[in-house]
Known about the structure:
Elements: H1 2-5, H2 9-17, E1 23-24, H3 35-40, H4 44-51, H5 64-71, E2 83-86, H6 88-99, E3 105-110, H7 115-122, E4 126-131, H8 144-149, E5 156-162, H9 174-187, E6 190-194, H10 211-214, E7 218-223, E8 236-240, H11 243-253, H12 262-273, H13 275-299, E9 304-305, E10 314-315, E11 318-319, H14 328-339, E12 341-342, E13 344-345, E14 360-365, H15 371-383
Amino acid sequence: EHFKRTPFALERYFAEYEFSAPHLLCCSDAEPVSLKQTLALADAECRGLWDTLSLGYTESQGHPLLRKEVAALYPPSLAPEGVLIGAPQELIFLGLSAMLDKGDHVICTWPGYQSLYETAIAAGADVSRLDVTALEGNCADTDLAAAVQTLLRPNTKVVVINAPHNPTGWMPTPAAHDRLVKLLAEREIYLFSDEMYAGLEFDAVDKLPSAASVYNKAVTVSGLSKALSMPGVRLGWLVSQDVALIEKIAHLKDYTTICLAAPSEIIGIIALRNREALIEGNLTIIRRNLELLDAFFDKYSDRFEWKRPKAGTMCFPTVKGLRDGANVETMCRDLVATKGVMLLPGTVYGFTDSKRPQTQRFRLGFGRTNLPECLTILAEYVDGAPDVFA
């Protein structure tokens, strides 16, 4: 019933423009790869699996080779039995639905992907939002554990974090992440960790251990969509040391997709066996684009401000000087209508800055090769002094 009353605001906005706007400057994924490129990476075993592939049903928990490749990402000792393969959005829904009951309390990082908190609400839980924008920027080691502790209740069941974070690019330091894990372990609280952007840290010192590797009550969700450039494959995974919980979630999956598409599983094995090369290619694009963004936001500092992200494919800048009656969504809709450039207004996250209500934020994606062209057109738009500005 909750989902009937609560549209997924981000997806509804994308549905209006994603496949009609000629210039996408808000994508959350890295530059997509083609099927031809992917198959060229296949080793002899994977090529054989692909060439002899049957389009019949697949194993509900996932292809054994695929689960083995996923488990290897989570040292020191995650078992393939602790891996469940599915579509990422599906796994968020199933995982939180299995973990929560009516009357539970959840703490969730925000702004963020709407499923991470709406699924908890739909399960009957009460959700407290942890504002990531209070932690981002120069105060990278602001104590995440202390921020969570202020929101804890006797009935807190799950803490949900997303790091690297969508849409800010924020990450806690490894020390701050460790303090969070210790806090939750003391209270035996579950940690649901969205790690879809893991691997896209700009500096190796910022890399975090996966929650599932360091905490026996953690569940990690990740997949191919972001860091590995394959959102169209619709392949993700849940992993946990708690095999019984993974089995419980797998039972719910019998009511959704049952199993993944056979071609997606083989593509997934190929991708994971070439993970480092795919990620390094994306980081090359990202680092080049970040230099362009540094110059852009420096030039237009009278109109925008940003906190340089630490990882991922997105940032969450602020637009300044909007006229009375205009907000960031007004600007974004005007930009796509007049210039064909799509940005994502922060309103789709339900976000307002409580300390500076007159400011407005938007999501800008920098994981794709079209960013230089898009920035040029955005600059033309700003230079034209559209009437959304005062």
